[in-house]
Amino acid sequence: MMEKAQAQKRIDELRKLIDYHRWRYYVLDQPEISDSEYDKLVLELQKLEEQFPDLITPNSPTQRVGAPPAKEFKPVKHLLPMLSLDNAFNSEDLLAFDRRVKRILGEVPLQYVCELKFDGLAVSLRYEKGVFTLGATRGDGYEGEEVTNNLRTLKSLTLNLFCPDPPELLEARGEVIMTYPDFERLNEERASRGEPLFANPRNAAAGSVRQLDPKITAERKLDIFIYGMGACRGKEFSTHWEILQYLKSCGLKISDKVRLVDSIEEAIDFCKEWQEKRGDLPFGVDGAVVKVNSIEYQEKLGFTTHSPRWAIAYKFPAAEEITRVEDIKVYVGRTGALTPVAHLAPVEIDGSTVSRATLHNEDEVKRKDVRIGDWVVVHKAGAVIPEIISVLKERRTGKETPFEMPKRCPVCGAEAIRLPGEAVTRCTNISCPAQVVERILHFCRSMDIEGLGPAIVVQLHNLGLAKDVGDIYFLNMEKMLQLERMGPILAKKLLNQIETSKNKPLRQLITALGILQVGEHVADLLTRKYHSIDDFFRVSLEELQAIPGIGPSIAESIVVFFRQPETKALIEKLKKAGVRMEEEEIREEKKPLSGKTFVFTGTLSRFTREQAEGLVRRLGGEVSSSVSRRTSFVVVGENPGSKYDKARELNLNILGEEEFLKMLKEIGVEGIS
Ligand code: IVH
Questions:
Q1: CA distance 356 to 339
Q2: What confidence score (pLDDT) does residue 629 get?
Q3: Which atom of ligand 1 is nearest to the CA of 116?
Q4: What is the pLDDT of residues 93-143, one digit of tens each?
Q5: Whose CA is nearest to atom 6 of ligand 1?
């Protein structure tokens, strides 16, 4: 056993390393090491802390999850109030704001900081001597609720500030948000469990932070953006821009969209630009915020009772429209779930035409009381599937038709049932053509078999060439050419893609199998622990539930799936076809490029980037998108980017394409000319 002093030293090192890589991954979105390398560091730390429990500190990276549930939310008085912002709705309002500022300050040179207005839950984070000690919601602006242990579970929240001489006390102010994909995943899971759905990502974020049990917060994927400072003792700043840069250097997550400008006209440009581009962001923003940069001027401008005079929120018009429900149709998904979908008179919302909105399940239709013929308010933002927010009941004429869930599957006519306690009605026929086609489509999407879309899969199924997922690996040129509008070139392309998919990571295969409640995220958690498909046939409920992020209902779904004889048969078929069933990692040690990290820059002439990267990974190497001291080789093609400069700066091993080829040949890779 290691001596305590020695253990303490290694523990300190590991905590710093883990925190650094967490920051690269979750804050900067520029990881330097692979997930498995990261996991190894965490495991080493966990083991040492198990041996020396008295060396555990509340801010150790291992302690993010695990705090016991609270009995109630404790009130927290904010050291400085958390105010709200005055609103502007057009350029005129912004120009008026600028005039008001200049009326108070006189004609001085003014700079503004422009930021996105994140649509989430406002929180305040207190750091004492650089250590996160208290997290609170905004509440009424003067007093909020303590949510320290819940916020601790957010991976992009820094528990120990990086800055060398942290101030006595610092309050960072920011917004907790949930991205659209995470929101949709959460609602899908809730719908399948019959739990009430969150109306939007903001409610989901707020509901997830305001949990008495931090374990629930930990299961939800939340993110945080910091946009300012509350109280601060022990450090002075002269501009808001400087504050943001400082907070960023401390390791806090600041949006990279912030912009410093010299006039209100440029600030208006920023607002309009993001009004246009808001749909490109993976999370919701309800506007932009314009702030006077100089702190001296901010102090001169002061506050009204509820908002500062030095800042204003430019509100984007809400992404909603009124339209009519022309029909409610029922679709059959890969799990047999019957989903009612409202067909709408097309309307333009947020730059795209909306003609459908999901109604999720029978209870949702009842709750919203949507009828065919109703006028409804439809909302759409970013990647979120359009949603009916409300029904304009005052516009009803009496001719509207209430929806009824069919008793039989609209595709195959088999009985459709809704089990007690479930929200979902399902088609009971496992061979229902709609289910089979959807399962194959889901499989193809998850295994990156592009081009095998609905038109082709429906034909394959109708011709009896794809009766299940496994059949796609037994397609050949002759079979493909039976399809309408299919020529040898397209067929070859598709067959190649099917062939390539055989070697996808186990994680993708697990997602592709379409196990209920197992999406990419859960598949990722699973394959970090289990490296072979056969492990899943043996694993117990208890073992699965011990994995953080996997609750009892997901665990049960996995166990049930692998117990079915159909699953065994399908896996056998896929094995026979040569689909990879093991994660390469377990064979890593024996591989020629194990432990080596490659970065590619520029265009290679003999391979596509994907092929070259795939080759390195198959040979046991890692591929990273950014250059660091840990990079073993930087492979440089035509027109390399800044990674090449950085590689030279760091004096790394640089390989031209020829040298890379030579290396591969020396290792014994054949078939490359
Ligand atoms: S500054 C004293 N900046 O909007 C100034 N607020 O109505 C305080 N918000 O609840 C706010 N993004 O949580 C500021 N970039 C941003 C923001 C932002 C979102 C929220 C904030 C507050 C509300 C203000």
A1: 12
A2: 80
A3: 15
A4: 999 999 999 999 998 999 999 999 999 999 999 999 999 999 999 999 999
A5: 117
For residues 631 and 624, is the Cβ–Cβ distance under 8 A?
Answer: yes
Burial class (CB in 10 A: 0-12, 13-18, 19+), 3: exposed
CATH topology of domain 4-63: Helix Hairpins (1.10.287)
Structural domain boundaries in the chain: 4-63, 86-315, 320-395, 433-577, 588-666
Closest ligand 1 atom, residue 117 Cα? 12
| Residue 175 alpha carbon to ligand 1 centre in Å | 8
Beta strands per DSSP E along 97-139: 112-118, 121-128, 131-137
| Closest residue by CA, ligand 1 atom 9 | 117
pTM: 0.67
Is the CATH code 3.40.50.10190 the one for domain 588-666? yes
Confidence at 317, pLDDT banded by 50, 70, 90: confident
Q: Which atom of ligand 1 is nearest to the CA of 308?
A: 2
Residue with CA closest to ligand 1 atom 12: 117
Sequence-ordered list of residues with C-beta below 8 angstroms from that of 371, at least 6 positions apart, any chain = 325, 391, 396, 400, 401, 402, 403
Closest protein CA for atom 14 of ligand 1: 227
Q: Please tell me the least confidently modeled range out of 53-57, 66-70, 79-83, 488-492.
A: 66-70
Nearest atom in ligand 1 to 85's CA: 7
Closest ligand 1 atom, CA of 175? 13
Question: 10 Å Cβ neighbour count for 75?
Answer: 11
Ligand 1 proximal residues by C-beta, below 6 Å: 83-85, 115, 117-118, 122, 138, 175, 227-228, 289, 308, 311, 313
* Distance from residue 227's CA to the centre of ligand 1 (Å): 7
Question: In the annotation, is 117 catalytic?
Answer: yes
- Give the Å distance between the CA of 224 and the centre of ligand 1: 13
Mean pLDDT along residues 14-40? 91
CA distances from 593 to 97, 558, 588 (A): 60, 34, 8
What are the pLDDT digits (tens) for 496-534?
Answer: 999 999 999 999 999 999 998 898 888 988 998 899 999
Cα dist from 144 to 86, 150, 153, 155, whole Å: 21, 14, 19, 22
Q: How far is the CA of 148 from the centre of ligand 1 (A)?
A: 20
Q: In testing the pocket of ligand 1, which one of 175, 241, 307, 312 has its CB within 8 Å of the most ligand atoms?
A: 175
Q: Quick one: which of 129, 175, 168 has its CA closest to 154?
A: 175
Ligand 1 centroid to Cα of residue 85, in Å, is 7
How much distance in Å is there from the Cα of 120 to the middle of ligand 1? 10
Report the C-alpha gap between 367 and 403 in whole angstroms.
Answer: 12
Residue with tokens 């949507």: 370
> What is the CATH class of 433-577?
mainly alpha
Q: What is the pLDDT of residues 485-497, one digit of tens each?
A: 999 999 999 999 9
> Angle, nearest 10°, between helix axes 433-446 and 454-462?
130
**Class of the CATH domain delimited by 320-395:** mainly beta
A 10 A CB-CB count for 566 gives 10
Annotated catalytic residue, options 117, 215, 221, 479 = 117
Helix 35-51 and helix 520-529: axis angle, to 10°?
Answer: 60
- Looking at every residue in the chain, the average pLDDT score rounds to 91
Tokens 């999407």 belong to 445
Q: Is the distance from CB of 174 to CB of 227 less than 8 angstroms?
A: yes
Protein residue with its CA nearest to atom 2 in ligand 1: 83
| Ligand 1 midpoint to CA 87 (Å) | 11
Bridge partners, 354 (sequence order): 347
What CATH number was assigned to the domain covering residues 86-315? 3.30.470.30
